[in-house]
Amino acid sequence: MRTKHAAMALALAVFVGVGAWVAWGAGKSPAPESTFVLLDGTHHTTANMRGRVTLVNFWATSCTTCVAEMPELVATHQKYQAQGFDTVAVAMSYDPPSYVVNFAQTRKLPFKVAIDNTGTVARAWGDVRLTPTTYIVNKRGEIVKSYIGAPQFDELHRLIEKLLAET
């Protein structure tokens, strides 16, 4: 019985530790080399992000939290885009492309929307399976923060402002 409790405590400690690591950011690590296929058929790469602060959001039209946070992502993009901020919304491989196109058009999403139909991009970014998952990439192309679930947007805005101020 004692061994079972010890194993459960260890598993809980690992879970909490990993959760804290993800919630508070994993430190700076290079964004994975990726090519995003945008709705208009053009390509956007990780290399294109250099020099800009970029929010990369993995989402799905079937994800209620994703749909609920989308107006905040739009507002964030519009607030900071003139200052060197960019947003790439990556639809998950299981999301039907017609749903993604319809969602982007009807909501007039002002940022880049990509369809990851093979799952290659999600795998490159840490095998993303939970939506929404969001990464903040600094001007040097390093991931400085990640969120699973909707971020606290006031905290996110402070981070974006700090990163935009960096040279």
Automatic annotation (TrEMBL):
Residues 25-165 form the Thioredoxin domain. InterPro entries: Redoxin, Thioredoxin-like_sf, Thioredoxin_domain, Thioredoxin_ResA/DsbE_sf. Transmembrane segments: none annotated. Keywords: Isomerase. The lineage of its organism: Bacteria, Pseudomonadati, Pseudomonadota, Betaproteobacteria, Burkholderiales. PROSITE patterns: THIOREDOXIN_2 (PS51352). This is Thiol-disulfide isomerase/thioredoxin. GO terms for molecular function: isomerase activity; oxidoreductase activity. It comes from the Bacteria.
